[in-house]
Hints:
globular; Spore Coat Polysaccharide Biosynthesis Protein SpsA, Chain A; 4-stranded parallel β-sheet; alpha/beta; about 450 residues; about 25% strand; UDP N-Acetylglucosamine Acyltransferase, domain 1; 8-stranded mixed β-sheet
Amino acid sequence: xxxxxxxxxxxxxxxxxxxxxxxxxxxxxxxxxxxxxxxxxxxxxxxxxxxxxxxxxxxxxxxxxxxxxxxxxxxxxxxxxxxxxxxxxxxxxxxxxxxxxxxxxxxxxxxxxxxxxxxxxxxxxxxxxxxxxxxxxxxxxxxxxxxxxxxxxxxxxxxxxxxxxxxxxxxxxxxxxxxxxxxxxxxxxxxxxxxxxxxxxxxxxxxxxxxxxxxxxxxxxxxxxxxxxxxxxxxxxxxxxxxxxxxxxxxxxxxxxxxxxxxxxxxxxxxxxxxxxxxxxxxxxxxxxxxxxxxxxxxxxxxxxxxxxxxxxxxxxxxxxxxxxxxxxxxxxxxxxxxxxxxxxxxxxxxxxxxxxxxxxxxxxxxxxxxxxxxxxxxxxxxxxxxxxxxxxxxxxxxxxxxxxxxxxxxxxxxxxxxxxxxxxxxxxxxxxxxxxxxxxxxxxxxxxxxxxxxxxx
Length: 458
């Protein structure tokens, strides 16, 4: 029968037309919540993980292209960029020369198809909030969709649950806020529920490359595809060395109990283990969220488990209205797609360069991406021009995209010679400003950096 709260949540999802596979998956995690499951991964249950480097792997061009020929690209495109003050798909943000993330992704794939002579389907997992705008923006690319496969499928949605009694929240002021996405771990549930997983297999494809749409470094590279195909692994994730900016982020480890690779997120780390989480010498690798999986292996794993892959629970406590701290506290039941690595025996990780991990989560990241730290070549891939990516820290004047754009009306300053830029206060930048070395700007009143200024340390 289930509890009253679960029954109400089930009915709410059914009334909204949510797929039955997604409802059953949600019910699985609801029961875990009822039994006090937190999803925590104690430090004493894991040990550090080492891995091979892509730079040391030998993949022939022919093998790489052959693997790419069997690959489908899936981009996760459900994010609204609310933390940056956006109310539409974050991937619609302008990156360079009037091109958005979506424009660049589309052109990267079209270029790869032409260069390597492969089909390379591109499919977006949109949310109910990003689908319309994103598909309208992509309509200009008439050759992007591949016959027999859709250009998008929709991420599922689930009710937010009141912290006190796990009942689905009611918020008449804005009923949309009663719902949330189930985290990007929903990609597997949605692929199965929509029938797309079967469609890709029936169309003759063997591998999926999945990545976030805000990471323009995540290109379906034939070298990585060739490595994954040769490995015979059912599942793999690209990793990078953690840096000081990754101290609070998730990391890979090996579970002592069964030797499986796990991906421990910050939300799964106990308070007493935060110091170990931040130890870059102990836990050296973080996930790029660029992952590869064998389509048939994924189908078999889902079939065996009745459609529920069983990813670790992430219990995310927020306010029903993220912009109103007085609104009721709710639990968002989430899973991370990278956590699927622990489901598959023989799963692999591989260390790649930071050029494959250029995520934009804040306006700090956006400033770097819009600057001359990266060139965008004829293949629309990012080429890093700087020896190192500078550390950027902008204060709250720049947190929201609208305010950020007002303060860089002539474009981003040159940052390829910078190692660090910290801005405290209301500074507006003119054209052709250069930042060299370590630079701190601080002022209690509004200031302007005049065009042509060179800001240098010392």
